[in-house]
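hey can u check if this looks right to u? its 137 residues, i copy pasted from the old doc so theres a chance i mangled smth
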Amino acid sequence: MATYDELQIGDSASFTKTIGESDIYLFAGITGDLNPAHVDAISAAQGMFKQRIAHGMLTASFISTVLAMRLPGPGTIYLSQEAQFRAPVFIGDTVTARVECTEKIEGRRWAKFKTTVTNQDGKLVVDGQATVIPPSA
């Protein structure tokens, strides 16, 4: 964990997870996003990726894991997230979410982070930026 005062430009952290079929079904159930691209193998086989894909927001949510649990860590308040989905994530892919502090906003005691998610081949699947309020103590 890093408080606002401890946080340094360039500090980074990551979280890695292999996406299982149950992750997709649980996320679909929680969110209500039952898009056949995620939950229907027959329909997905006819789509552009020829197989089921993980929800983009499921993949991006691992950025929240890093910010909330690693850097800055517990007590962090998420203010915004820009996310661009660059490539699909398939069942069995291992993704790594990474954050890197790029700016500290002194007047507000906020911090900005470059946020990325890559797959096991190093391919960028999510690219973006987050703004958070790091813990103060």
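The first strand starts at residue 12 and ends at 18.
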